[in-house]
Design brief:
Blueprint (H helix, E strand, L loop, with lengths): L9 H35 L1 H20 L3 H17 L4 H16 L7 H35 L3 H4 L5 H34 L12 E2 L13 H4 L10 E6 L9 E5 L4 E3 L8 E5 L6 E4 L9 E5 L1 E5 L5 E2 L13 E4 L5 E6 L10 E6 L2 E4 L10 E8 L2 E5 L3 E4 L6 E6 L1 E3 L5 E3 H4 L6 E7 L4 E5 L4 E7 L2 H27 L4 H16 L1 H8 L8 H10 L11 H23 L9 H6 L5 H28 L5
Antiparallel strand pairs: 1-2, 2-3, 3-4, 4-5, 5-6, 7-22, 8-9, 8-11, 10-21, 11-20, 12-17, 12-22, 13-21, 14-15, 14-16, 14-20, 18-19
Length: 617
């Protein structure tokens, strides 16, 4: 899974995030008070403006401190009832219709059909939930003002902050019910939609004969079968299953009467054997291993150049996306991962290494032949204490699994224990090299990890819905805030603009720190008009000077916008679930606190905007 911007640990993130939130909130508060004072000064004069501003601030403090939970929940209940009267259940109908016709368009023969189904269901849930939150939040208050139904509320002893908070809670309660139903139905659809089985013809099975070159008896099956003791058994028959859902599996039968299938299309099947010989019956289970929630242990990545000297990065082979660096084959170039917290209790059987390696071929060669590589386990305190090379052939565009056992051989060929020889204070290093000359391996820090264990897929699916719920919360908050001073259509446009800005959060940061090729907004516009290359410098002259000047002035403006907009892309946890990785609890906690930190300023802003209207006085 690609992780371009990994989040820091929670204990490191919290102090920095708290200072940032306090600073931005303080700046916005000062700016809001200053704007209010200036407007009042133009209307009533400086002295009177100070009095009005002070009265407004005291009134705000009194309103927030005097909030009644009973009135808030009563207003929330009214907002929820209003939502259901507006036929929000049509969202569920649309969701059911989408799932009903999804099987017509989802490719069941896809090599990773589980990922396809998870991506589809969670993406559809996200879009429908955000649309539901958008339409509920932006039209409710303007419609009440237009129809004057809100006056039946404000004539009661209700504070403006209670109206704002009640609307948000009511809409979120309605959205939560809808999201819960979609989550349960979506989970059933994902799990049941990929169910299938195969048949095995016992007559078609072939006896294993080492002298027959047509029968492959490589030990690869030991890593792909569900059974943990595959290496301790003897393979006696091989064959293939029937073709179902566009694929088939290799079948392997052992001398102890057990059997299984190899992994294909992201899963395998257990096989129950009854009877013997030609009368044997093979019952194939439903797919196994298709939906996982792997808990990876990531390391820190460093490189060595072709002479074996330390380097900050590997070679750039010309890809525009610089996420991965490359090492040259047949040289001393290497990628070194340093893992910490490695204990015998956590990894009693050894190190289960999983990796996603990219291959760059400098010449075509024999395209059917793979690119060879090697792994070495190394003592972090002494590079000379290392294991013998563990060869492998790169499997590009797939997750490759290599089990490094507890007992290894050192460079002298002597058997040694992994934890006694190579692990020091829980730290061990893994060195990867490309062994095929003039070819390249590409890797990023998250491309190689140790698979510590597997968490619950159902719980991971739920965590993805927590991320959807947080996005829905932010859309609701912004929609209600905008609706306190804008009409419905304009509020919707403002909320949509906020969402788009949130999805472009990372791009805005790249513009601020000048990490975008082609320059800032005006320079990029000039290049588009002139059809100039992104890398070539603009021609010297007034246009270049104007573009650089305007873009320099725009950077603080973009910085201010990015500081107050939430990063919606970070709240999207779909890739974790679809790729089969557990959503870290620390990540979920960070995203939850980040989303909630936006709600207090939105409620305060909505209170003041509603207070300024006649209905709020």
């Amino acid at each position: 899974m690609v992780i371009e911007n990994p989040l820091p640990p929670f204990d490191q993130w919290l102090p920095i995030a708290l200072l940032w939130w306090v600073g931005v909130s303080l700046v916005l508060t000062i700016a809001g008070v200053a704007v209010g004072y200036i407007v009042a000064a133009f209307r009533h004069g400086p002295a009177r403006a100070a009095e009005i501003t002070g009265t407004a601030l005291r009134s705000a403090v009194a309103d927030f401190l005097g909030m009644s939970a009973g009135r808030v929940f009563a207003l929330a209940r009214l907002a929820m009832q209003e939502s259901f009267r507006r036929r929000v259940l049509v969202v569920l109908v649309v969701f059911f219709v989408v799932l009903g016709f999804a099987a017509w368009f989802l490719d069941s023969e896809n090599r990773d059909v589980g990922k396809l189904y998870v991506n589809f269901v969670l993406t559809a849930t996200t879009y429908l939930s955000m649309l539901l939150a958008l339409f509920l939040s932006v039209f409710s208050l303007p419609n009440d003002l237009k129809q004057r139904t809100i006056y039946t509320i404000v004539t009661k002893p209700v504070r403006p902050v209670e109206i704002v908070l009640g609307r948000i809670l009511g809409f979120m309660a309605c959205g939560t019910v809808m999201l819960a139903v979609m989550g349960v139905v979506g989970y059933v659809f994902v799990v049941r939609g990929v169910q299938h089985t195969h048949t095995i013809d016992p007559v078609a099975l072939v006896e294993v004969d080492a002298s027959n070159p047509d029968v492959d008896i490589e030990a690869e099956h030991a890593a792909t079968l569900a059974s943990d003791d595959a290496e301790q058994r003897t393979l006696v028959k091989t064959g293939r299953t029937s073709i179902d859902e566009g694929h088939r599996h290799d079948v392997e039968v052992y001398d102890d009467g057990t059997a299984g299938t190899t992994r294909d299309h992201g899963h395998w099947h257990d096989v129950a054997v009854s009877g013997e010989g030609d009368d044997a019956r093979f019952d194939v289970s439903q797919p196994r291993g298709m939906y996982t929630a792997k808990v990876p242990v990531y390391g820190t990545l460093t490189f060595k150049d072709r002479q074996g000297n330390p380097a900050a990065r590997g070679i750039n082979v010309g890809n525009e996306w610089e996420y991965r660096s490359y090492i040259e084959g047949g040289t001393l170039a290497a990628a070194v991962w340093r893992f910490e917290g490695i204990t015998p209790e956590e990894f009693p059987d050894g190190l289960p290494v999983e990796m996603t390696i990219r291959v760059f071929r400098s010449y075509k060669g024999e395209i059917s032949e793979g690119i060879l590589g090697s792994l070495v386990i190394r003592n972090p305190q002494d590079e000379n204490i290392r294991s013998s090379e563990i060869p492998f052939e790169a499997e590009e565009y797939s997750v490759q699994q290599i089990m490094i056992g507890r007992t290894l051989t050192n460079v002298a060929g002597e058997p040694v224990d992994l934890f006694e020889e190579f692990v020091v204070d829980g730290v061990v290093e893994l060195v990867m090299r490309c062994e095929t000359p003039q070819q390249y391996f590409g890797m990023a820090q998250a491309d190689v990890y140790l698979r510590a264990r597997d968490a619950s897929f159902a719980m991971n699916f739920f965590k993805a819905h927590v991320g959807i719920w947080l996005q829905m919360l932010l859309v609701t908050g912004y929609g209600v805030m905008f609706s306190t001073f804008l009409n419905g259509p304009v509020s919707m446009l403002a909320a949509i603009a906020t969402m788009l800005g949130g999805f472009l959060h990372e791009h805005m940061n790249n513009l601020i720190f000048q990490r975008v090729q082609g320059g800032g907004p005006l320079e990029s516009f000039i290049r588009i008009v002139n059809q100039d290359n992104l890398i070539v410098e603009l021609e010297a002259g007034p246009m270049k000077y104007l573009a650089l000047t305007v873009d320099t002035i725009m950077r603080p403006v973009i910085f201010a916008v990015s500081a107050v907009l939430p990063d919606f892309t970070s709240l999207n946890l779909i890739s974790y679930v679809a790729d089969g990785y557990n959503v870290p609890d620390g990540t979920l906690l960070i995203e939850t606190l980040t989303a909630l930190s936006y709600m207090l300023p939105l409620i305060v802003a909505g209170y003041f905007f509603l207070k300024l209207r006649e209905v709020g006085k």
